[in-house]
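Appendix B. Raw example, untouched.
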Amino acid sequence: LKPLDAFVDSLAFATNGLYEGSAREREAQAACLVDQLATWANAEALSDVSSETAQLTIGSRYSAFALVLWQTLPYAPDHPERRNILNWLEKRIEDQLIFWPNAPSGAREGNLRAWAALAAVAVSEQTDRADFRTWAQASIGDVMCTAEADGSLPQEMSRGRFALHYQLHAIAPLVTATVLLERQGVRASEMCGAAIHKIVHFAMSDLADGSKTQAKTGVAQSLFDGTDHVTSFQLAWIESYMLLKRTEVLQATAEALRPLSYSKLGGNQTAIWQ
């Protein structure tokens, strides 16, 4: 996946040009981004993702492509390749809809399913595909409804010393998909007893030392055992989440880290959601 992720990273970084400079410069940058995506679309790239591992993990890359394309819309709405790219993305999402019902049960309730859901709803934001929207809603529901009373996600808590890392990894697509669903008229933030807020609260309340997650897993968390640390991209979802719920802690965290960016969420979240 490294070459694919390198392309995703370069696209996401280039979206910064959509938020600075003159209108003409932004239009040129949008056209450049669409042209790059069109190269992949016209080649039917990723049309033969056959291994289970690839099918499980490809969703976040589709999310990035769809969210990058979405950001170009104000500056290149009539680009002749836009429809071709959307057709390509629709086919890739259709592949995911076929794959996921037979995926391993644990994966169907974890972050990988959430990333696939985000890809679907990011495409439906641009095509109004009701089937994608419905599937995305059901998919994030299948993940969010597993949350314990404290907001921890069992599938991510099963990952031992990486549990908090993966809780944060799941929150990114869950939050972003929720916001996009709400833009499309689905009250996703109310699903499963407003579970999204519990899920976020659990992670945010454990960022100081990981003690809550350690109590659940029995092991010190990688983010606090000296081998890793919380980085800003892991909290980039705060920008979109604050459209659902804003607190002083979230605001202060965002202000300290801005600009918040995550390539698989389409790039600069501060620019997108503010």
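End of appendix B.
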